[in-house]
Design a protein that fits this description.
Chain A is mainly α and about 425 residues long. Chain A has 15 helices and no strands. Chain B is mostly helical and about 140 residues long. Chain B has one domain: Up-down Bundle (Four Helix Bundle (Hemerythrin (Met), subunit A)). Chain B is elongated, with a radius of gyration of 16 Å. The chains are: A mainly alpha (about 425), B mainly alpha (about 140). At the A-B interface, α6, α10 and α12 of A face α1, α3 and α4 of B.
Chain lengths: ~425, ~140
């Protein structure tokens, strides 16, 4: 057997994932500001401010963190690094930041010139990321369940991006395809349920048993659930209306069963310490299950909202902020201080004194910071949900939710920034010019 | 038991149990229980590391002819973990729960990331390469 290609030490440089993590909160803050300034956006998913807010959250916050996390996670779960990750990352970040801003400004002011800038910038960023990630995933010969899930997630991201580019071109004078509402729905469905859920699933199969000493997900579930999800997703996206409707119902059952199973494993964990990452996981899975339940009730003609037209917005916001963002916030509380510690440890490996003086994870990112993050995010979510059910108070409540989300994302930035400062201060002086940038 | 993956993974899980029990006892400030569980954990971890460094890794290096590859990375990580266990033992003796829990949180992730690399890559590779896995297993100490 040739062992030459196997490396168990492929951790990318610290600045690579951290560069993504430090940029993301700014987009969350911008999205919250838009929600505060244009609360009327909640009236329609096609409102210009709504389109801008959604893309600030999904691209600027969500994709930014997911890309940084994937570049970090893949070498750990597969022992294969993402090719040229360090060289490509600044370009991917630059494309994603400028492209997301242009796209959001384009939606907000309906200015074609911004779309012309957004298309090559975002297209370029995703092309670089998907090429590097695709190559890395193809190189892994014996991938486990996580790699299997990540492959499917990246495939869904590719289709989401293609649909997004097609739709964006219809806002410009490129008349190679016509606008299609169905394509927008599929773009959102594949982005949220395909890329979002599959990526989270792949990571959770590894991380929940590992970090919390919980029982492992069963093998049949790890293979069966993603396959079933992708097939159902494909039917939901591409079949005719009645078949698609049935597939969406089945999809909500699959996704909620994943939520129930994960909650059960977390409940059976051996590590029973008070841990805000666990609380974020629990919050996100409860959100997921309740949203699936609401969807099924809606299909059975049980309508809970006063404004039924807002139902898909409730689902979208609940899924994005309640499920996906909650998990991201929880994971950041663990991954960031751990990576800092890992790199500090490597920097001090030959210096026993410096090694023994290293700050631990809780000193790098204090539990009190995670606690505030959890409380702010939970309060913002609760207020947001409440606004959907409060007839006359909808806009005031939405503005309150926006203020709390603004505080929550600002808190995240402050937490990451301070942790990064503690990390830099803890580096041995001789290494500062090489590692801290 | 003739399967390296199964045998060694079981040792990882065994260490996880006493690790979690010690951590929980510290969080409840139950220092006598914490010391007892920590003693079990550091003994088991020590035996497991010795099993790997003096038996499994040696056998792997002999067959593959590669001493600077995956096993050398694993040996470095063992050293890092030994250093952390030492710091945790000092925190336990000083009854410093905050410091202990900060260190144990860190060791937990370090250890699990290390275990994952061994369970998913190194052990299966060793299983496939060694001519007599039963002999290697019988040379190792049980926990």
């Amino acid at each position: 057997m040739n062992t030459a290609g196997i490396s168990l030490d492929n951790v990318p440089e610290f600045r690579t994932p951290m560069g993504f993590f430090l940029l993301a909160p700014w987009f969350g803050m911008l999205a919250a500001l838009l929600l505060l300034l244009y609360p009327e956006m909640i009236g329609s998913r096609w409102h210009p401010a709504m389109l801008a807010t959604v893309h600030l959250l999904t691209l600027g916050f969500g994709a930014m963190i997911m890309m940084g996390a994937m570049i970090q996670v893949l070498p750990v779960v597969s022992s294969h690094p993402v090719p040229a990750a360090t060289a490509l990352s600044p370009w991917i970040r630059a494309g994603l930041v400028s492209g997301t801003l242009c796209l959001s400004l384009g939606f907000l002011f309906m200015q074609k010139s911004f779309f012309y800038m957004a298309l090559p910038l975002l297209g370029g960023a995703f092309l670089m990321f998907l090429s590097a990630m695709g190559l890395a995933l193809l190189r892994v010969k014996k991938g486990g369940d996580s790699v299997f899930c990540l492959r499917l997630a990246v495939l869904c991201l590719l289709i989401t991006v293609v649909f997004g580019v097609m739709q964006l071109s219809t806002y410009m004078d490129l008349r190679w395809v016509g606008y299609s509402f169905e394509r927008t729905n599929n773009h959102a469905l594949l982005g949220l349920v395909g890329w979002g859920v599959l990526l989270i699933m792949g990571v959770s199969f590894q991380v929940i048993p590992m970090f919390h000493v919980a029982p492992a997900f069963s093998r049949w579930f790890c293979r069966g659930c993603p396959i079933l999800l992708v097939i159902t997703l494909a039917v939901a996206a591409f079949a005719n209306d009645s078949v698609s409707s049935g597939a969406l119902l089945l999809l909500s059952l699959i996704v909620s069963s994943y939520g129930v199973y994960s909650l059960n494993l977390l409940y059976r964990r051996k590590r029973k310490l008070k841990d805000y990452t666990v609380r974020f996981w629990q919050l996100s899975f409860v959100n997921l299950i309740v949203l699936c339940l609401l969807y099924v009730l809606n299909k059975l003609s049980v309508f809970l909202l006063i404004e039924q037209g807002q139902f898909h917005l409730l689902l979208g916001f609940g899924f994005g902020l309640g499920f996906v963002v909650s998990i991201m916030l929880g994971m950041l509380q663990k991954i960031v201080p751990f990576l800092m510690f890992l790199h500090l440890q490597r920097a001090c490996i030959d210096d026993t004194d410096a090694f023994m003086r290293l700050p631990n994870m809780r000193q790098l990112l204090p539990v009190s910071d995670s606690k505030w993050q959890f409380q702010l995010h939970s309060a913002a979510l609760a207020t947001l949900y409440l606004s959907f059910f409060a007839k006359d108070l909808e806009h005031p409540l939405l503005m309150v939710a926006a203020v709390i989300f603004l505080l929550s994302f600002t808190w995240l930035l402050k937490t990451l920034w301070q942790a990064n400062r503690r990390y830099t201060e803890s580096l041995p002086q001789a290494l500062l010019p090489n590692i801290s940038d | 038991m003739t399967y390296i993956v199964e045998y060694m993974t079981q040792q990882h899980r065994c260490c996880d149990e006493s690790f979690a029990a010690a951590e929980e006892a510290v969080s409840k400030q139950n220092w006598s229980e914490a010391s007892a569980q920590m003693a079990v954990f550091s003994r088991d971890l020590g035996i497991h590391f010795t099993n790997e460094e003096e038996h499994l890794f040696l056998a792997f290096e002999e067959v593959s002819g590669n001493t600077g590859g995956p096993t050398s990375v694993m040996r470095v990580e063992h050293q890092q973990m030994r250093g952390m266990v030492e710091s945790m033992t000092q925190a336990l003796q000083a009854k410093d729960a905050d410091n202990y829990l900060g260190l144990s949180e860190t060791l937990m992730i370090l250890m699990q990331q290390h275990n994952m690399k061994e369970e998913q890559i190194l052990y299966p590779m060793t299983q496939q390469m060694l001519p007599d896995t039963a002999a290697v297993i019988s040379s190792m100490n049980d926990l």
